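Q: How would the structure tokens look for this protein?
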Amino acid sequence: MEKLTQHNYWTIIATGLIAFVLSGIWYSPMVFGEIWETYRNPPNPEIPRWTMAFAPLRELIVAYVLAKLILLLNLSQYKDTLKLVFLLWISFHAVGMAGAVLWDHMQWQLGAVHAGDWLMKMTFMGIVLTKWLNKKSISLNNQ
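A: Here is the predicted structure in token form.
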């Protein structure tokens, strides 16, 4: 079984950070920003700047876990990874958002925006990591 190498860790970090940037685009006015602003708890306070220092940690953790699962499950085809991503997403993100809609009075539109953001990011990370980790494991096995 292939292990994560220092080179793969840089790929995981880059993938997580790019996913964070994609999330910024997701919540921008040109995509779903208006829905997000409309349905967040009014009044919509300014988001503290310090939160941006910690926000990418979520994507970095998910990228790391996905990379570990891709290697542990020996997933070499992105279609297999997408099945895993969908199961993880529906089990954790979608169910979590459904709970917030049901019990915390979150508007379903806001829950859909949040859940869709994570589906988009996890799909991106899964495809990139599957392609990269399998590319590297092939070249490492030939050396």
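The CA atoms of residues 1 and 74 lie 8 Å apart.

The radius of gyration is 17 Å.

Upvote if useful.
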